[in-house]
Amino acid sequence: MRATDNNDDYLVKRLKRYRIILHRNQNELRTLPEGSLGFRSTASGTEYVHLFNEGSDRNTYIRKGITKNPVLIARLARKKYLQVSNKLLKREIELLEKYLRFHTEPTSDNILGLLPAKFGKLPREMFFPNIRNSRAWQNKPYEQSTYKPHEKIHVTSKGLRVRSKSEVIIAELLDAWGISYRYEMLIHFEGKTYCPDFTININGKIFYWEHCGLMSDPDYRSRNLKKLRAYQKMGIVPWNNLIITYDTEDGAINSSIIEAEIRNKLVA
User: Fold this and answer.
1) Which strand (E) or helix (H) includes residue 211?
2) In angstroms, what is the C-alpha Rg of the chain?
3) Which of 17, 54, 99, 224 is the most buried (most CB within 10 A)?
4) CB 127, CB 109: distance < 8 Å
């Protein structure tokens, strides 16, 4: 299975976001008044004062009452908020930078890379029993659809013939992630035969993948809906073991969406 550094990717994005916020805060602070907001308790309640230095003596504070100046109070309150925010951001940025500098995500690729060089000559399935089992399942003969074989005009890099360019992308990405699958394997239920686009084996659990490419066609939508209802009766449902993807109305497909489905539902 291909290694992923999802946690590191998240932290890198978080670090970038913190740096942007810190930079924005620092720019805003330059526009705010000198000094700080102070509070003074009186018999009638709390009064607000503006504390600031005047001249070169940085140890002497001038106190000016601003209770009747809500705009200045708000700007000084905002200044204090940004100062505390920046202190926290700088601490988090420092910790994230240190973590990312020394951290190695314990993915399979990273672990294999730490093994002695001679181990690198062994096939990956030697290290992962689940891959051996899934590959054995994939290579066994199975009942495959014979429906309109002349429509299988698209060929993957491994020589698999499929019906659409979208299915080529799905098959290529499944191969890239080292995921075992069968194309158009037939399943039988209540006297009828159904044909999922891809049947996938993840550590012995079976998933099904349907890609819907003609959703602008009413007849296609109707047939697809009937199939999904039958799947539901079989316990094949999106929140458990069914992945459904779509082409856009103009027939386009976004491979990043396909890969996100694989990452989040099959290798998470």
Assistant:
1) strand 205-212
2) 30
3) 224
4) no
pLDDT in tens, 171-184: 999 998 889 999 99
**Tokens linked to 142:** 């199975």
For residue 4, pLDDT beyond 60: no
Alpha carbons 58 and 70: distance in angstroms, whole number: 26
Structure tokens at 177: 């992630």
Q: Within 10 Å of residue 246's Cβ, how many Cβ atoms?
A: 15
Q: C-alpha distances in angstroms, 143 versus 181, 185, 193, 246?
A: 13, 6, 11, 26
With beta carbons less than 8 A apart as the criterion, state whether 44 and 59 touch.
Answer: no
CA distances from 232 to 49, 189, 226, 228, 239 (A): 68, 11, 10, 6, 11
Q: For residues 5 and 11, what is the distance between their CA atoms, to the nearest angstrom?
A: 10
Q: Give the separation between CA 143 and CA 195, rounded to whole angstroms.
A: 10
- Give the list of residues 6+ apart from residue 217 with CB closer than 8 angstroms, or none: none
Q: How far apart are CA 64 and CA 61, in angstroms?
A: 10
Q: How far apart are CA 61 and CA 75, in angstroms?
A: 19
Residue 65: C-alpha distances to residues 7, 120, 141, 241 (Å): 50, 74, 86, 67
Which residue in the block uniquely carries the two structure tokens 């990956």?
124
Assign 224 a pLDDT band (cuts: 50, 70, 90). Answer: confident
For residue 115, with 0-12 CB atoms within 10 Å meaning exposed, 13-18 middle and 19 or more buried, which class applies?
Answer: exposed
> Rounded distance, CA 35 to CA 64, Å?
11
CA distances from 164 to 29, 96, 184, 228, 254 (A): 56, 44, 13, 20, 14
Per residue in 9-46, pLDDT (tens digit) is: 889 999 999 999 999 999 999 999 999 999 999 888 89
